[in-house]
């Protein structure tokens, strides 16, 4: 029996830590077509008032989504997902990059057409501060 069949409100997802490097930003820029220089050039980022090069918001969102779908084990189980971008993830020009800490909790369980749905509140933190607000996903749990 899968441990997901016994999921209850209040259960916490196993936390995940992800390192985001400048190389990741370059790969994401190539995949997404978003080559805005605030994601790779310190001078440009500083000129627009940023503390340094920042990760793409959609990359941060994708990593948080991967956290939830990794927990359930099936990307197709994602029913809905939304966030608000609250703070940037500043990615230094070194080999370590930025540390993104992801955690989550089952806020509610419902059933629709015989499918159990878990509403997950997601917390994404960089440097001890939340970077995604109102981050929430709905996941179809395995039967």
Automatic annotation (TrEMBL):
Stored InterPro entries: Fatty_acid_synthase, HotDog_dom_sf, MaoC-like_dom
Matches recorded under Pfam families: MaoC_dehydratas (PF01575)
Source species, domain of life: Bacteria
Natural source organism: Pseudonocardia sulfidoxydans NBRC 16205
Protein family: Belongs to the enoyl-CoA hydratase/isomerase family.
Protein name as catalogued: MaoC family dehydratase
Domain MaoC-like: 16-105
Record-level Gene Ontology MF annotations: fatty acid synthase activity
GO biological process, one term: fatty acid biosynthetic process
A single cellular component GO annotation: fatty acid synthase complex
């Amino acid at each position: 029996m899968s441990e997901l069949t016994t999921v209850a409100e209040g259960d916490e997802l196993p936390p995940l830590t992800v390192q985001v490097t400048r190389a990741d930003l370059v790969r994401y820029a190539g995949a997404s077509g978003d080559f805005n220089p605030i994601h790779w050039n310190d001078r440009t980022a500083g000129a627009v008032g940023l503390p340094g090069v920042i990760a793409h918001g959609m990359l941060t969102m994708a990593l948080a989504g991967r956290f939830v779908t990794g927990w359930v084990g099936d990307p197709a189980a994602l029913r809905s997902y939304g966030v608000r971008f609250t703070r940037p993830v500043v990615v230094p020009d070194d080999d370590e990059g930025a540390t993104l800490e992801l955690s989550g909790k089952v806020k509610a369980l419902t059933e629709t057409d015989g499918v159990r749905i878990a509403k997950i509140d997601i917390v994404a933190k960089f440097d001890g501060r939340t970077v995604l607000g109102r981050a929430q996903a709905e996941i179809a749990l395995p039967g």
